[in-house]
């Protein structure tokens, strides 16, 4: 089934929960209301016509004014794919987990929480996964500033080449 | 007589354990030799590659993609190239596509040789490892002649590949394939069908097809569970539809469908198929340019796409968001090892500690690909 047809199907069932269906640029996506993502996911997973049995990819994007969580669904039965998006505010973004539908979401949601600071309600194991547990901030946010040191270890290396340049500049001046 | 006091034991495996294929750590809760649970702790190799992509631009990111998975870097190169080409609607010249397929399939051979060799070493046999690595060295030599590097290739570009095949390389490659085919049989009789290997791997940690799909396992791990899915066949990309090859599936001939032996044999069978693809590609190679004309200041139109590449560790997804500038807004790699690590905690319940090593080796996880 074409992705756009799948979005039509979702829209029929949840008319006020599908906020936007994008044009092909090159992949079309459907933006879904944050409170409906579990219901929409459940529908796409259980409906034999769509049978989205695999959450192929889940990630987040920081757009400076909002954070989007992106779900790439895939069906091994029908070999079709669709993209769902949830738009969240940047302050304390929270969305329900889809872990109960697709177990693969467990680790991917942990990664989004770790790198973008999105909270997943009802997640069984919401811990950092890649960064150290006491790391300040969320690295993939656009306004993230890397701390100069971590537990007394400098995150900046002084460059001997740059130092030479500065020395030369000094001598010229 | 006083009763023996027993308690649950917490063991720490890694991050420098020799059989964790990189830097991985497991916290194991064990009851004697049997694990209650093994909790993976990853992130030791996190190099923020996705963040780097936002800073270095489209062409500049190509060498970094090598570091996502340094055992089969051709596929990460190809994935990044294909994502950019899809965004900007660039067509790769046919000879360029052939060069990509040839380089990638040689890389698949090298990666699978390492995997089957390491499988031997992880269960305590040193010799198969040396046999496999000896063959892998020759592929590294071939690829070195092709692109100058043995591990982090940086061979592909957006719109094709950097260099054409060097003179005389085709004959060398064909001669190597003639040498490799009997070696795979030799390796099978030396190690794969060896009673010790079969008894050690069969019936260990089977994964059902439903679990494999639900946990998003990909590539050989998914096919070992009997799911007939190969991106090269099912969502054809590059020039793969022109080649005649089979997709091997796990059948459970040694025990249960989707056990460690099935996952191991999947690599051996895929090597035979890769060799078949390579022979066809080397023979049918068309003439022409290898690189499309792509501007140096590459700015794809605003939009987003996801592409999928069948890497040696399975279906690799590249999700790229472009805002129309020279720097990608967001890049995300969905890798096979990341998903495979997610299922270990579930599979480890009730498994022997020694079998955890077999499980990691059979899932073929590579630490840099998990952490990126």
Which characteristics define this entry?
heterodimer; A: 173 residues; alpha/beta; Beta Polymerase, domain 2; five-stranded mixed β-sheet; two-stranded parallel ribbon; B: 372 residues; alpha+beta; Cytochrome-c3 Hydrogenase, chain B; three-stranded antiparallel β-sheet; 14 helices; 8 strands; globular
In brief:
The complex is a heterodimer of chains A (173) and B (372). Chain A has 173 residues and is an alpha/beta fold.
Q: In words, what does this structure look like?
A:
The complex is a heterodimer of chains A (173) and B (372). Chain A has helices at residues 3-13, 37-46, 105-116, 160-172; strands at residues 18-21, 30-32, 54-62, 67-74, 81-88, 94-96, 119-121, 149-150, 153-154. Chain A is of the alpha/beta class. In chain A, the strands form three sheets. Chain A has a five-stranded mixed beta sheet with strand order 1-2-5-4-3, with helices on one face. In chain A, strands 6-7 form a two-stranded parallel sheet. A two-stranded antiparallel ribbon of chain A has the order 8-9. Chain A is elongated. Chain B has 372 residues and is α+β, with helices and mostly antiparallel strands. Chain B has one domain (9-371): Cytochrome-c3 Hydrogenase, chain B, CATH 1.10.645. Chain B contains 14 helices and eight strands. In chain B, the strands form three sheets. Chain B has a three-stranded antiparallel beta sheet. Chain B has a three-stranded antiparallel beta sheet with strand order 6-7-8. The longest helix of chain B has 29 residues, at 94-122. Chain A binds chain B through residues 25-27, 29, 53-57, 59, 61-62, 70, 72, 76, 79, 83, 102-104, 106-108, 111, 115, 128-132, 139-140, and chain B through 42-43, 46, 48, 50-51, 86-87, 89, 211, 213-216, 227, 229, 234-235, 301-306, 315, 317, 319, 321, 329-330, 332, 334, 338-339, 341-343, 346, 371-372.
């Amino acid at each position: 089934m074409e992705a756009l047809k799948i979005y039509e199907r979702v829209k029929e069932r949840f008319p006020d929960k599908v906020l936007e269906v994008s044009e092909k640029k090159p992949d079309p996506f459907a933006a879904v209301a944050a409170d409906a993502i579990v219901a929409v996911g459940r529908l796409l997973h259980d409906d034999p016509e769509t049978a989205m049995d695999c959450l192929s990819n889940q990630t987040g994007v920081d757009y400076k004014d909002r954070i989007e969580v992106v779900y790439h669904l895939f069906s091994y039965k029908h070999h079709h794919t669709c993209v769902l998006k949830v738009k969240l505010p940047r302050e304390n973004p929270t969305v329900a987990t889809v872990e109960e539908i697709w177990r693969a979401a467990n680790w991917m949601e942990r990664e989004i929480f770790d790198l973008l600071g999105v909270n997943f309600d009802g997640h069984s194991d919401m811990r950092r996964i890649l960064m150290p547990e006491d790391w300040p901030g969320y690295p993939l946010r656009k306004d993230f500033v890397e701390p100069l040191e971590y537990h007394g270890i400098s995150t900046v290396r002084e460059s001997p080449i740059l130092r030479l340049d500065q020395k030369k500049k000094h001598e010229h001046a | 007589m006083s009763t023996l006091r027993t308690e649950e034991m917490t063991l720490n495996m890694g991050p420098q354990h020799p059989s964790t294929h990189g830097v991985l750590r497991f916290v194991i809760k064990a009851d004697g030799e049997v694990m209650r649970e093994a909790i993976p702790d990853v992130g030791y190799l996190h190099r923020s590659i996705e963040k780097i992509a936002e800073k270095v631009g489209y062409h500049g990111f190509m060498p970094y993609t090598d570091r996502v998975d340094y055992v089969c870097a051709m596929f990460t190169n190809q994935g990044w190239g294909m994502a950019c080409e899809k965004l900007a609607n660039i067509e790769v010249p046919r000879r360029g596509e052939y060069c990509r397929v040839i380089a990638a399939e040689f890389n698949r051979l090298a990666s699978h040789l390492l995997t089957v060799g390491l499988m031997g070493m992880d269960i305590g046999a040193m010799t198969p490892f040396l046999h496999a690595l000896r063959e892998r060295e020759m592929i590294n030599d071939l690829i070195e002649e092709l692109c100058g590097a043995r591990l982090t290739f940086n061979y592909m570009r957006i719109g094709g590949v950097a260099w054409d095949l060097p003179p005389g390389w085709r004959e060398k490659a064909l001669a190597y394939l003639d040498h490799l085919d009997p070696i795979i049989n030799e390796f099978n009789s030396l190690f794969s069908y060896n009673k010790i290997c079969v008894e050690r791997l069969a019936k260990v940690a089977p994964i059902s097809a439903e679990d494999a799909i639900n946990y998003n396992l990909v590539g050989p791990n998914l096919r070992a569970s009997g799911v007939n899915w190969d991106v090269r066949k099912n969502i054809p990309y590059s020039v793969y539809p022109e080649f005649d090859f089979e997709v091997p599936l796990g059948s459970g001939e040694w025990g249960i469908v989707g056990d460690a032996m099935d996952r191991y044999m999947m690599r051996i069978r895929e090597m035979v198929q890769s060799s078949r693809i390579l022979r066809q590609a080397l023979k049918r190679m068309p003439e022409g340019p290898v690189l499309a004309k792509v501007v140096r200041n590459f700015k794809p139109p605003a939009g987003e796409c996801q592409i999928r590449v069948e890497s040696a560790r399975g279906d690799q997804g590249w999700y790229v968001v472009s805002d129309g500038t020279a720097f990608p807004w967001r890049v995300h790699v969905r890798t096979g090892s990341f998903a495979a690590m997610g299922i270990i905690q579930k599979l480890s319940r009730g498994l022997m500690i020694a079998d955890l090593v077999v499980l990691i080796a059979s899932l073929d996880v590579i630490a840099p690909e998990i952490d990126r």
